[in-house]
Amino acid sequence: LVLFSVFWGLVGIAAPWFVPKGPNRGVIITMLITTAVCCYLFWLIAILAQANPLFGPQLKNETIWYVRFLWE
Amino acid sequence: TPSLVAFLQQELRAAGRALGPCPESPRAPLAREALRVQEQSEQLARELREVSGNRASLRGRLRDLRQYLHVLREGQRFTSLPAPPGSPPRPRASSEREPILDPSLHRHLDRKINFVAGVIHPWRVSAFERLLWRACRGYLVASFVEMPEPMEDPATGESVTWVIFLISYWGEQIGQKIRKISDCFHCHVYPYPESEASRVDTMSGLHSQIQDLSVVLEETEQYLAQVLDKVVVVLPTWRVQVQKMKAIYLVLNQCSFDVTEKCLIAEVWCPVRDLTQVQDALRQGSYTSGSSVECFVQRVPTSESPPTLIRTNKFTAGFQSIVDAYGVASYQEVNPAPYAIITFPFIFAIMFGDVGHGLLMFLFALWMVLYENSPSLRQASNEIWQTFFEGRYLILLMGAFSIYTGFIYNECFSKATVIFPSAWSVATMANHSSWSSDYLATHPLLTLDPNVTGVFRGPYPFGIDPIWSLATNHLNFLNSFKMKMSVVLGIVHMGFGVVLGAFNHVHFHQRHRLVLELLPELVFLLALFGYLVFLIFYKWVKFSAADSLVAPSILIHFIDMFLFTSNAGNLPLYRGQVPVQMVLVVLALASVPILLLGTPLYVWCRRGTGHPTVRGHTVGGRGSHHRGGLTAGVVPKPVATGDQEPLLEGQEDGNSVNATKEDVESGGHSRDAEHKDFAEVFMHQAIHTIEFCLGCVSNTASYLRLWALSLAHAR
To answer: What tens digit of pLDDT does each residue of B416-437 get?
Structure first.
């Protein structure tokens, strides 16, 4: 959890300092920040939605049998 | 000249030559160069026409000669004397037909037999025969035979197998009638020599003529090929040059003439930043064209509001055009395009989210981007391809984001991938509920219960747990997840847009609008929908499987909030929920009239005190508050360029009659009609309010399309 927050925080806050000066600097900085915000938010929603599930997956019996002996 | 160029191109195409693309872009030619180009093209065109004409006439002659030859040859068969009876029959070349003229006719040699020979179109043969018979009452013998090879019909150009006819008759009048009839039928008539010897002579003469003609024709064709080669070399450059010249003339036509009729004046809008560039270009132009007088630039005050210029490079151009489709921002308003560069593909990716498909899209766009300078890609004539090519950066970004969202949705070609081990443990559940094999056999569907410890081991670190793709009730979970996600992202997006509008207010020094418009808008948006987002997050964090039976439904709470009712079966999410919700609703409803009446009243009050710094706002298009002048850092000013005697005060910028920036900008808003202005302002504000409120509600719902489309994609 923390890892991802840190990662996107780096992209969004630290990376803009490293953009080379040029005519497009403003655009690139905007792009970086927007990307960081969007992606982080998306990931956050995905993980929060699963953090406290109210119900579990309903599996078919064959799947259960298969998964039980394959994944674990 | 353009028509000449087009003619040359046509000829080239007719001759089957391909016109290569112009290798480098030539610069626009000067006036005398234009004349030279014109002369040259005229000359080439003339040559071409001559040569083609020659060739056509040569071909025609050749065809006539060959027809004559055939006529003679076939006619031979009819009129050659039969062998005297008793001698073995002379071997004939090809024919099996008997000579039509039987020997009995030769007894009538006191009458002179005349011949008419020619060729006729095969469709007209029967009519011709009938007419001849009726007209000449049997005083002739006509025979028809097909030509061994088809030849071109000069009128229609198609290949036709002609029919040779030979008519033998006696009597002058009949001869005239026959000739008239053959004229009617558009036959080619050739003189038919009487004796065989002369026929043979004629034939050999024809042979030699045909040979000569063929040689000449060959050489003509060669010459034609040479001329065409010359044209091929020069034409591409000319084409571009002609186009440039046309463009220059077009621009010049838009200038107006000076009073003295000696120079052209052009009134242009020019960005201040580019002013020095314009002056340099003018100076250079006068220098290279060698004229004695200089062009110069002069500023002119005007009350019109300048047009909007947004500078884009090849990357941003695509996105800017999409944003412009909603309406170009007014002068100096915020430009939302830089944000749209990311948000547009991102929202697309939310709907598209699949790693495999995203990867394909990304690679396709990458290929287009890497080869974007290849002329074959750029000049393709296919319209649909052009659309894709123009949007290659857009597609690139969409693909990249789709890969990311695909990872989060855990979909690769609609199949889930297991990057990290799944968070749901089937074994634990099985052990807990003692699911033996027979138990499994009797129960087709079993649910993993997160209440049991060890079954759920924490959220999947990146994206959606792959176990859901195996579950039969995965739609339940996914629907809830995606709907909430859409709503959250939608509210965030809209809030951002509203805030962006704040930049507009600050830039145009309309601080009152910050309070009177931004604040009510934000309050409305956040009190209702922001609160919804808060509820979503709160429920995610606070409620777990332990109290899943009593978990409240956000939807019902939200509806109740508006109706000011409460549902007994739906427990509150937190203590004091009902009063908080009531306050929020009241706040939101209160902000609407503020939004509606705030600015007009303020403007009215201000004008009532006669303050000169009051400004009206630019009447932009829909959602003008959501745009601002971030990257449009240009300040267009009207300037006039003229080519005049140096006697006039042609000074550079700064000295001439210059309006102040303020005057130029606010010139468009006259302050004369006060009541009219107020009504207009009020109306505008009312429209804006309604638009905003309804927009909030409907746009929120429309973000649900994100959910819908992503669902559809997985299917």
So the answer is: 666 666 666 666 666 666 666 6
Of B346, B426, B465, the CB nearest to A38: B346
Q: B10, B49 in Cβ contact below 8 A?
A: no
Region B632-642 average pLDDT: 32
SS3 category, B446: strand
- Please state the domain count of chain A: 1
The answer to whether B344 and B321 are in contact (CB under 8 A) is: no
Residue of B nearest to A32 (CA): B342
Amino acid found at B509: H
Q: Which residues of B touch A57 (CB under 8 A)?
A: 424, 447-448, 467-468, 470-471, 473-474, 477
Q: What is the pLDDT of residue B432?
A: 63
Please tell me the distance from the alpha carbon of residue B702 to that of residue B715, in angstroms, as a whole number. Answer: 21
Say if pTM beats, i.e. exceeds, 0.95.
Answer: no
Partnered with residue B160 across adjacent β-strands are: B151
Q: Angle formed by the axes of helices B337-352 and A25-51, to 10°?
A: 30
Three-state secondary structure call for residue B151: strand
For B618, other C-beta atoms within 10 Å of its C-beta total 17
Which residues, 6 or more positions from B101, have their beta carbon under 8 angstroms from its beta carbon?
A: B78, B79, B141, B168
Phi, psi of A39 (to 5 degrees): -65, -40
> Hey, which residues 43-62 in chain A have their CB within 8 Å of chain B?
43, 45-61
| Token representation of residue B289 | 């064209």
Structure tokens belonging to residue B283: 């100076």
- Give B346's contacts in chain A (Cβ within 8 Å): 35, 38-39
Query: Looking at residues B608-625, what average pLDDT do you find?
Result: 41
Q: Which pair of structure tokens corresponds to residue B568?
A: 């007994």
Q: Is residue B704 packed enough to be buried (19+ CB in 10 Å), middle (13-18) or exposed (0-12)?
A: middle
* Residue with token string 């440039």: B244
A57 to chain B: closest CA residue: B471
Task: Indicate if the pLDDT at residue B307 is higher than 50.
Answer: yes
**Domain ranges, residue A20:** 1-71
Answer positive or negative: Cα dihedral of B343, B347, B353, B357.
negative
In angstroms, rounded to a whole number, what is the distance separating the alpha carbons of residues B622 and B495? 17
Domain parsing of chain B, residue ranges: 1-79+111-253, 255-304, 317-414, 472-608+671-714
In one-letter notation, the amino acid at residue B599 is T
